[in-house]
Description:
Protein name: Deoxynucleoside kinase
CATH class: Alpha Beta
Structural class: alpha/beta
Number of domains: 1
Strand content: 5-15%
Number of helices: 8
Low-confidence stretches: none
Strand order of the largest sheet: 2-3-1-4-5
Binding site for ATP: 11-19, 138-142
CATH superfamily: P-loop containing nucleotide triphosphate hydrolases
Active site: 86
Oligomer: single chain
Mean pLDDT: 93
GO molecular function, one term: deoxynucleoside kinase activity
Domain Deoxynucleoside kinase: 7-204
Amino acid sequence: MKKVPFIAVEGPIGVGKSSLAREIANYYQYRLLNEIVEENPFLGNFYKDIDGWSFQTEMFFLCNRYKQLEDIEKYHLNKNEPVVADYHIFKNQIFAERTLQSKQYEKYKQIYYILTANMPEPNLIIYLKAGLNTLLERISLRGRDIEKNIDPAYLLQLTKDYEQFMGKFINDHPNVPVLTFECDHIDFIKNKADLEAIFSKIDDQLFINN
Length: 210
């Protein structure tokens, strides 16, 4: 049976997820799903005081992403409309485990697994990774007010958490292909050849899956 393409672009803050997802959507004429970020009313306080605002922040993201995926499944995937998202809901586990206290995290996990049971899963993951200097530079360039207080140490730890999580994900989900791109060495916004190289890799996977 032919699979409806559902691509998720993932990676740490500032790596270029939204930009690449938008390019993919335009190139393949897929429905674009953008995660809700700046709409989170707790995020600004979170970057100032992670311990004090982590639970509210993570619960807002979880509930909104759940609703987005529910709508995407109902109105698009079930109607054979391909989708590209600039996130995978698994990222909630990465952030929550890093920021929540142990008792909060245990409660959070219970809610997470209830909400995500039987949710649509991407059949292709694109994992973007980059070093701290690249991430800080790109965060600065996009100029979001709520990101001005991001602690570089937190961002560095987040990149390590992503790397560890993705290694486990690849081992645990052998049937879900993961394309990894080192964004310290490519610029798919300014360099058309870099973007075309990414499209070529995606083409290969779409052909295999279908």
